[in-house]
Amino acid sequence: MSDSTSIGIVTPQVAHFSEPLALKSGEVLPQFDLIYETYGTLNADKSNAVIICHALAGNHHVAGIHKVDDKHPGWWDNLIGPGRPLDTDRFFVIGLNNLGGCHGSTGPSSINPFTQKQWGANFPVLTVEDWVASQARLISYLGIEKLAAVVGGSLGGMQALQWTLSFPERVAHSLVIASAPNLTAQNMAFNEVARQAIITDPEFHGGDYYEHGVVPRRGLRIARMLGHITYLSDDAMGAKFGRKLRGDEIKYSFDVEFEMESYLRYQGDKFAGEFDANTYLRMTRALDYFDPAFDFGGDLAAAFKRAKAKFLVISFTSDWRFAPARSREIVQALLDNQLSVSYAEVTAPYGHDAFLMPDPHYHAILRAYLKKIRFGE
Fold this sequence. Notes:
Blueprint: E1 13-17, E2 21-22, E3 28-29, E4 32-39, E5 49-53, E6 80-81, E7 86-87, E8 92-96, E9 111-112, E10 117-118, H1 128-141, E11 149-153, H2 155-166, E12 173-177, H3 185-199, H4 217-231, H5 234-240, H6 259-272, H7 277-289, H8 300-303, E13 310-316, H9 324-336, E14 341-346, H10 360-371
Parallel strand pairs: 5-8, 5-11, 6-7, 11-12, 12-13, 13-14
Antiparallel strand pairs: 1-4, 2-3, 4-8, 9-10
Active site: 154 (nucleophile), 319, 352
Protein name: Homoserine O-succinyltransferase
InterPro entries: AB_hydrolase_1, AB_hydrolase_fold, HAT_MetX-like
């Protein structure tokens, strides 16, 4: 029986932008494409639009399926659909793949119009500010002046914050989930280890591996395995795998002995087969660079003086990568500016990945907040 709350089959679309985009690094992208999907119907005055900003390895396929026998719906399918917390009977939802991505938007594997070869190592380093600037182009392309809400988890939450700073007049509500105002030194260290795994892979070729017809699969695999450990809590890993052996007895070797090892190797292999190494480098660098307080001597409250949106900030108790204390820093900076902010700290065992889970308490918070949004605010 079909699920009446599912989006059903969706078809990605591509928007082309021929006007150059000036990047924060000083480089300029002469032109670019963004691939996106939409769910729901844009209302007559175009005031019910919501944009979903994806996390590090995400893309434009947020909800629904691409074909009838598709076993894997969009990455936030449990949240979006008719009657779901982000109700597509009310909202027009937009999911897009960020610039620099590897799922259809212009990125390192795209053709450089200057050389007619793939960009490779020459594709510029991007920032959260650059992504938001390109997203604003897409919103204008769709004829939307102001968003009812920007929603994002993790790196997507950073984009939801940046929207309120780059375009304070164009966003009414910002939903910042499992995120932080910047990365801690420990988080940057994880990113650096992941990048070094990729860069030192013999098949990386300085980022121009496309020309050699190879993929730095080993580096990508290790990077993903490392990242995956940080997305889960110790309790979640213990509950799922514990110290369970893969076979019937210990082999006293370096082959897979435990279920956890098997799981990590599976996740690493799967990721290495579908993601682009140059994109991974740029996504993690954008995480490192994000720091709205940087130009204000580290004063986050000063950074948010220009924000006008209303905010919902959500953290999860077991998220040690972006701990609740980091969300409370955001809340305090917003309150210091007398901005409207609601904050929820959700008790959940899943670690950082909790923002992707269909936790009833978490979804009830989102549903209640989104129901109160009035279009045209």
